[in-house]
Structure formats: structure tokens, C-alpha cells
DNA sequence: GATAATTAAATGTATGTACATATATTTGTC
DNA sequence: GACAAATATATGTACATACATTTAATTATC
């Protein structure tokens, strides 16, 4: 659906304003699609992202600092998201032996198992990007990179 | 900067996954740019959006329902955002005379004055979309509309 | 080696999001 | 006109975000 119809705004000042609003709107739409998906597995999107980083490190541990570096949203609160994952026993947390300020965070076996199920489900669920051609997708990334220059 | 460098991921599975991650990352980046901007004026992004809708209605009142319809994020809590704006005396709220279930919400004179200052400042602040050509911006909107089909 | 500065994580507070539920008013039906 | 259904908003709870502050451990400096 065209963005004008989605947000019931008759016209935009120019293509720049339209692209800007469309970007915010679409990313939001995507996040909602995704959070509905993750909810089936008892996770939120940020919790999933942290688990995925931990799997990337596995079997090495990660520290909170490393999680913050790798997270898409740098300013979010990794420490409290790990709290939630620990409560669900998807990760373990223990004081780092070589630096007792830091904590070693590891994905647990149930955590790995959950991510495995999520991977399988995600292959059947492409959240709209499948509507693009491969060339479209590449072009989209090029435009987005240009915006952040 | 290319998305691979931004999030320190070596490679994506395909252009689809890359575009997807890039979209989420870029929209987040844009929102952070904006929220820093609005903070100078004592507003948050959703508060600004509500004020802008109210100005569009002015001098007619808006109801909470109308705000929800027009907001980019449909599921957020308009009622509590209006609470914050009312506390700052940027809007007024009173029971609608013709339907006492509804509340009439109006932007106040200080609210209009604040939006006026924001408009001026926003013309000097284009948040990255100015890096695109006009044709790029139009193409971006076309791709985003396609994703949400 | 005591003390200051830095670093790593956790905590506090205000705001917003998502979703369920509650309260009050209006509308529809018998 | 009583009572059920629908409507408009507000409230409650859990989670996340944004940013400042605190606590504890380590490193640097004298």
C-alpha cells in the first residue's frame, strides 16, 4: 500500500519528506511483524538479538560490553535484557575469573535449542523483503547506506 | 558507512537479509538523530507527532481516537502521551459537550508557538535524506511500499 | 603501597510500547 | 424505559529505551 494511504496524509512536501516518513513507518511495521513472530517463542526482539550474539560467541563467553557493541541499538540496556534471559534459563551469567568487574555471559543448551527452532521458523517467514527482487534489495541497501553517510 | 561495517558483521546470507537488517538499523539511526533534536525543545518524538496532528486540526479539537488513527505507530498509548503534553500546557483537554465519553484535545497557544520554532529549526536539519537525490528518494519510497504489500 | 582515575556492570527514574482490563457514556433492542 | 452491546477513554502490568548515577574492581600515578 502506498504510504499516503497508510497514514492518510494527502501529500508530502517533497520526495525527501515522503521517503523519510516511509522509512520510519516501514521499519516500525517490520518490527511489529517480527515481534509478533518472536512472541510465539516467548522472546522479544532485543532478547533474540542478544541470544544471537551469544550464539555467535559460543562456546566463548561474552561480556555486557561486547553485547552493547554488537547490538543494533547501542543505547539500550543490555544488562536488564540479560536479566530476563537468565530468568528464562536461556543464558548463564558468572563473574569473569580474570577480571572480576566483568561478567561472562554464555548461551545455555536450552537457549541454543530455542534459537535452532527459531532459525527453522524464520526461513518460512521473510517479513516482506521477499516482495523485492534481489536487485531491489541490493538497491535498497545502497540507498540506506547513503542516508547514513 | 556500509552496513557491514556499522554492525561489524562480516557477511549477510543474501541481499534480502542485508536489506532487512539495514532497514531496521537505519530507521533506528534516524529516530536517534531526531530524538536528540527534539530533546532540545523538551519534546519526545511521539509527543511531537501528536502536537503536529493537533495543529493540523486546529482550531477544531481532536479526540484520542483521531490521534490514534493518525499516529504512525497505531498501537502506542495516545492517552498517556497527551497527559505529558497537558502537564507542559502545550495542549488542553476537556470533555466533549456533544459526547461525554470523548475528550476534546486542542493545541494551546504555547504549543503552536513551540511547533513554529521547531519548523524553523527542522528546515536546517534534514537527517540524512538530503544525501539522496530526489530520484533516489522516490525510488526508496517505491521499494518500501513494495515491502509492505 | 596508598590514592586517584578509569572501567564494567548494575540500578534509578522518566518515558514509551504492547496488550489486557476497567470505567463511564451512549446506542440498540426488547 | 430497562438492559445488553458498543464506544471512548483511562488504567494496570510487563517490558524496553534513554540517560544519569552508583557500586565494585582494576589500573595508573605519586
From TrEMBL, chains A, B:
<protein>
    <submittedName>
        <fullName>MarR family transcriptional regulator</fullName>
    </submittedName>
</protein>
<dbReference type="InterPro" id="IPR036390">
    <property type="entry name" value="WH_DNA-bd_sf"/>
</dbReference>
<dbReference type="InterPro" id="IPR023187">
    <property type="entry name" value="Tscrpt_reg_MarR-type_CS"/>
</dbReference>
<keyword id="KW-0238">DNA-binding</keyword>
<keyword id="KW-0804">Transcription</keyword>
<dbReference type="InterPro" id="IPR036388">
    <property type="entry name" value="WH-like_DNA-bd_sf"/>
</dbReference>
<dbReference type="Pfam" id="PF01047">
    <property type="entry name" value="MarR"/>
</dbReference>
<feature type="domain" description="HTH marR-type">
    <location>
        <begin position="1"/>
        <end position="149"/>
    </location>
</feature>
<dbReference type="InterPro" id="IPR039422">
    <property type="entry name" value="MarR/SlyA-like"/>
</dbReference>
<keyword id="KW-0805">Transcription regulation</keyword>
<dbReference type="InterPro" id="IPR000835">
    <property type="entry name" value="HTH_MarR-typ"/>
</dbReference>
